[in-house]
Design goal:
Layout (H helix, E strand, L loop, with lengths): L1 E4 L1 H9 L2 H17 L7 E6 L2 E6 L2 E8 L3 E9 L7 H18 L1
Parallel strand pairs: 1-5
Antiparallel strand pairs: 2-3, 3-4, 4-5
């Protein structure tokens, strides 16, 4: 599996405290090595093609393209049980923009 992050997501991950950043990077490495069946990575579908990686207090939204390519669209620090609507809307808009640019 190939994982690419939009620049905003990479910047967010790089700005995280060391332990959180290490957790996120460990999950991404597991996904690269084992694909979507990575045993220690918590994934859930948000809406349509939009999915979420749950890592401690961080959530990373992604979309799969061409079956094996994962694009990290948006990330945020979790502050409540449910993903805030504005975070989902941001991820959906970035997904739309990315997918339209791919055609």
């Amino acid at each position: 599996m190939i994982i690419r992050a939009l620049p905003q997501v990479q910047k967010f991950i790089d700005s995280l405290p060391v332990t959180l950043r290490a957790d996120v990077k460990a999950d991404l490495k597991d996904l690269q090595e084992h694909g979507l069946k990575a045993p220690l990575v918590d994934l859930r579908q948000i809406q349509g093609k939009l999915w979420e990686i749950k890592t401690g207090g961080v959530r990373v939204f992604y979309v799969l393209i061409d079956g094996a390519d994962m694009i990290l669209l948006h990330a945020y620090k979790k502050q409540s049980q449910k993903a805030p609507k504005r975070e989902i809307e941001t991820a959906l808009q970035r997904m739309k923009d990315f997918l339209e640019g791919e055609e």
